[in-house]
Design a protein that fits this description.
- The complex is a heterodimer of chains A (about 110) and B (about 120).
- Chain A has about 110 residues and is mostly beta strands.
- Chain A is about 0% helix and about 45% strand.
- In chain A, a hairpin with a 4-residue loop joins strand 5 and strand 6.
- The mean pLDDT of chain A is about 95.
- Chain B is mainly β and about 120 residues long.
- The termini of chain B are far apart.
- The chains are: A mainly beta (about 110), B mainly beta (about 120).
Chain lengths: ~110, ~120
C-alpha cells in the first residue's frame, strides 16, 4: 500500500474554502486516490475519488498533481458539518486508513 | 447513495460471552463486505474481507476463530465476537461495495457498533 502523509490537524473559518493536502509519493500507477471523512462516533463517508484528472462533485473537488504523488481535497465553503477527520487513501480493492487530518471549522 | 446499516449500534456484554453484529446493505446487493475495527483516537484497521458465499479473508494478526464472519446473502454479513474480553472493546464498522454505482472501488460504510466488554 502507498504511504500517505497528511497534516494531523487543520482549522478553517466557516464559509471559507479549505485545501486539505496529501502526499502519496509511492502510489502505484493503477491506484485510485480516495478521500473519505469520518465524523465522531460514525462510520466513514465517501467524499470523492480520482485517478489522474481533477474531479468535482457536490461535496468537494479533488486536485491531483501531474505526477500523482500528491493531491488536494478542496472544500469550497466549509460549514460546521464539515468538521471531521479526512482520510486520503491511495489504493484500489482495499482501503487502508492512515491517521488522516482532523479539520476544525470555526464559526 | 447506497445505504449500509448495522445492528446493534451499541452493545455491552460480559467477558466470556459472544456477540453478533449484523451489517446490511439496504438498497443494493453487496458481493463484498469489509469489517474494520477502530480503537479510541486511532484510525480504522481492516479486519477481514467477506465475499458472499465464500470464506472470509482475514488480515494478518486477526484471529479467525475469534472473529467469525458469515456472508450468507448479498445483503447481509455478520461478525461474531466469540468469548469476548475487555480488550475486544472497540468500535466495529462494516462497509460494502456497490458494484453498480460510483467508482470501481467505492465503499459505503455502516454507522458502526460500539462494543463494550465488562
Amino acid at each position: 500500500d502507498a504511504k500517505t502523509t497528511q497534516p494531523n490537524s487543520m482549522e478553517s473559518n466557516e464559509e471559507e474554502p479549505v485545501h486539505l493536502p496529501c502526499n502519496h509519493s509511492t502510489i502505484s500507477g493503477t491506484d485510485y486516490i480516495h478521500w473519505y471523512r469520518q465524523l465522531p462516533s460514525q462510520g466513514p463517508e465517501y467524499v470523492i475519488h480520482g485517478l489522474t484528472s481533477n474531479v468535482n462533485n457536490r461535496m468537494a473537488s479533488l486536485a491531483i498533481a501531474e505526477d500523482r504523488k500528491s493531491s488536494t481535497l478542496i472544500l469550497h465553503r466549509a460549514t460546521l458539518r464539515d468538521a471531521a477527520v479526512y482520510y486520503c487513501i491511495p489504493g484500489s480493492y482495499q482501503l487502508t486508513f492512515g491517521k488522516g487530518t482532523k479539520l476544525s471549522v470555526i464559526p | 447513495g447506497a445505504v449500509v446499516s448495522q445492528h446493534p449500534s451499541r452493545v455491552i456484554c460480559k467477558s466470556g460471552t459472544s456477540v453478533k453484529i449484523e451489517c446490511r446493505s439496504l438498497d443494493f446487493q453487496a458481493t463484498t463486505m469489509f469489517w474494520y475495527r477502530q480503537f479510541p483516537k486511532q484510525s480504522l484497521m481492516l479486519m477481514a474481507t467477506s465475499n458472499e458465499g465464500s470464506k472470509a479473508t482475514y488480515e494478518q494478526g486477526v484471529e479467525k476463530d475469534k472473529f467469525l464472519i458469515n456472508h450468507a446473502s448479498l445483503t447481509l454479513s455478520t461478525l461474531t465476537v466469540t468469548s469476548a474480553h475487555p480488550e475486544d472493546s472497540s468500535f466495529y464498522i462494516c462497509s460494502a461495495r456497490d458494484p453498480d454505482s460510483g467508482g470501481p472501488y467505492e465503499q459505503y460504510f455502516g454507522p458502526g457498533t460500539r462494543l463494550t466488554v465488562t
